[in-house]
Amino acid sequence: MPAADKKPETASIPRHIAIIMDGNGRWAADRKLPRAAGHQQGAEAVRRCVKGCIEQGVRCLTLYAFSSENWKRPAEEVSALMSLLRLYLRREMKELNRRGVCIRFIGDRSALDDDICAQLKEAEDFTAGNRELLLTIALNYGSHGEIAAAARRLAEKVAAGEMQPEEITAETLAAQLDTNGLPDPDLVIRTSGEMRLSNFLLWQSAYSELLFIDEYWPDFTEETLALAVAEFGARERRFGARS
Ligand code: IPE
Ligand code: IPE
Ligand code: MG
User: Is the pTM value of this prediction over 0.85?
Assistant: First the structure.
């Protein structure tokens, strides 16, 4: 029997794909363009990726757009990224809604400008009823901060007598993470050839399949996504058990 026949149908399409969209700067440098041009093309790749996920039947897509460490970049690059986010939300919201995309944001919003926070809330409210694809965008997100905040909230509950220490389990901790309610990613993709997670979904990716792609994020197409889905389908997930 060919290997593919042994796999249950449903196992071959990842329910949740998470992507570290990396390489915008190098894409631009290769073309002697400013880094902002790479980020702009990166936004175009997001559109193709969303379309590809809907076509492939992927239900959840999580995109790493800005890490809690990206504030270390020069102020002009941070501000270009924030302006692009404003533009993307303004320009794409109707189309995302038309495609049935429910959009949500994870990460610490307290450091973001008020007008951006308002736009995030508006996008979430506008698309809340959509069921085709759950698109989660990680903004000012970092796993260490997320896990520390979750631990702090549990500690507060224990201190207030609302919870016993022995009730702190993997489940109750996961319920305090920004991703509460979202299934763990089946597949984590990073573009640009770098092989690290850079503080992205460290808890949630405990059993994710990892895929590192050489191409830069602005070159990502529906075809790249289809290849990634095919690669995922060829993997054997064991979750610690024996096959
Ligand atoms: C990814 O591209 C976008 C963000 C991190 C915001 P980079 O800007 O990291 O591009 P490289 O890695 O410098 O090529
Ligand atoms: C990770 O990329 C963050 C995002 C894609 C938003 P970086 O380019 O910031 O990661 P490092 O610094 O190379 O690890
Ligand atoms: Mg990078």
Answer: yes
CA of 77 relative to ligand 1 center, distance in Å:
10
Residues with CB under 6 A from ligand 1: 21-26, 66, 70, 81, 192
Q: How many domains does the chain have?
A: 1
Reply yes or no on whether the pLDDT at 1 is more than 70. Answer: no
In a domain, residue 219? The reply is yes
Confidence check: pLDDT of 68 > 80: yes
Pocket test for ligand 1, best of 19, 26, 212 (most atoms within 8 A of CB): 26
Catalytic choice (5, 30, 70, 114): 70
Q: Which candidate, 63, 203, 220, 209, places its Cα nearest to that of 134? A: 63
- Respond yes or no: is residue 180 known to be catalytic: no
pLDDT at residue 9 tops 60: no
Residue range 151-179: mean pLDDT, rounded: 98
CATH assignment of the domain containing 68? 3.40.1180.10
